[in-house]
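Lab notebook, bench 4. Still working through the backlog of constructs that have no structural model yet. Next entry is a single chain of 182 residues. Request: give me the structure tokens for it.
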Amino acid sequence: MKRFKIVLILLLPCTLYLYGQEKQIFIIPAEYTLSQSQALQFFKGDTLIIQSDSVFLINSSRYNFYRNLHTSILEEKTSVCNELLTTYEKRLAEYSRDYEKLLENCKKTEGAIDVLQQTRQQLSATEKTLEGTIDLLNSTQQKLDEANKIIESNRKKCRSQKFLTGIAGVGIGLLVGILVGS
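Model written out:
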């Protein structure tokens, strides 16, 4: 039990030290890849959440080397180095703007694709409706053809009945004429 207390007393400052450190969470957005902002500095225990496609980490001595190199190039009065550096920075800014435009166009294209898909679905529904209407029209046309055949058949029957009635009337008229005349 004594040993446990001693170990607990020794571990207590260590745990307090670990919990006492300030840890921060940094989110590196995708836009940071194309930005020309200053370099970010992180410390031991910091947590990084990287949302861009790539990030390059360099140690402090390498960063100081590049920063000093950049500063010395800018301080030199040689126009070639200054022109190269300014041209590079202009191109980088231009590429960044072009990339943003490309992303914007892609988003517009995605919207157009959604509209095309909806239009395709609406056209498909319209096509099904038209097919149903065509089937209904064909069925109606067949029924009209059958009705015309029945009407024509009834006309022929009606003519033949009228013709027979006329012949019967003539026959009765002749018979009555013969009977009245005799």
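Notes after review: The CA atoms of residues 5 and 62 lie 47 Å apart. The mean pLDDT is 80. Flag for follow-up if needed.
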